[in-house]
Design a protein that fits this description.
The chain is mainly alpha-helical. The protein has helices at 2-10, 12-31, 39-49, 51-66, 78-82, 84-115, 125-151, 156-159, 167-180, 182-205, 211-233, 242-245.
Length: 262
């Protein structure tokens, strides 16, 4: 995280602009969910066909800057030009897992309400409370397990740049890397959550418009952190020739540069 922080500060405004455009597109896509009747279907289509290549492009833009190339907003759309179907396939697995888990959790909660008599006009409050408590005891561990499973895919959209052959290969690479460093990934996810909440609170305090400054900064910072971690954990040099970073194929493992202290 220290290396990512220093990278963003070293070329702040271009990288912030990259983060701002990515944030604005993501926020704009969220508006489609409010459309009556068809909003859910549109949001699902956006999540499958638009957001994965956009997020892959964000990693590409950060990679380019790490490797010495200038940060450019146009790099955000390289995911559509070079790794479109790979990124879509790479996200189908976590989306499918999340959808299945959501159905399971919703079914458990609805069953608890039905058992507690929630659909009956003569429902007993005590029965309802007991049923919901039992459901909570089941659901909470499921949510924790789901969070750990989803964490396995945290490098998928970054790994598509090293696996042009298929998105599935990128997913397998992400799972392999996270399994080897699971506790570190859990800690990183918790740090990211805390930083994201703090950035949102600060942005809201700054007359709400501050989120357009803090959240893009945090987005690029987190992306740079993920790139540095992935490269170090896969035995790659943290800084590579820009030609190799352009997506020509996997880069042979090299010695890892020692990270400087934050």
């Amino acid at each position: 995280m220290g290396m990512g922080w220093r990278l963003v500060l070293s070329d702040f405004w271009p990288l912030w602009l990259v983060g701002l455009v990515a944030f604005a597109i993501q926020a704009g896509c969220g508006i489609f969910g409010a459309i009556p009747y068809i909003g859910g279907c549109i949001s699902l289509a956006v999540g499958i066909f638009l957001q994965p290549p956009l997020n892959a492009g964000l990693f590409y833009a950060v990679r380019q800057r790490i490797d010495g190339a200038p940060a450019q907003v146009g790099d955000l759309f390289e995911g559509f030009r070079q790794r479109y179907w790979q990124s879509v396939v790479a996200m189908l697995v976590p989306l499918g897992v999340g959808f299945a888990a959501g159905l399971l959790i919703s079914g458990i909660m609805m069953a608890a309400v039905a058992i507690g008599g929630g659909f009956s006009p003569h429902a007993n409050d005590e029965d309802m409370i007991v049923a919901l408590v039992v459901a909570g005891v089941i659901v909470v561990p499921l949510i924790i397990i789901l969070s750990l499973v989803m964490l396995l895919f945290m490098f998928s959209l970054l790994a598509v740049w090293d696996h042009p052959e298929s998105g599935w290969a990128a997913v397998k690479d992400s799972v392999r890397v996270v399994k080897a460093h699971l506790l570190s990934c859990v800690g990183l996810a918790l740090l990211f959550a805390l930083v994201g909440v703090a950035a949102y609170i600060v942005g809201v305090i700054a007359l709400c418009v501050g989120v357009f400054f803090t959240l893009p900064f945090v987005t690029v910072w987190m992306s740079a952190t993920v790139v540095y971690l992935y490269r170090s954990w896969t035995g790659r040099a943290l800084s590579q020739p820009a030609a190799a970073a352009a997506g020509a194929g996997p880069v042979p493992p090299t010695s890892i540069e020692p990270p400087a202290g934050m």
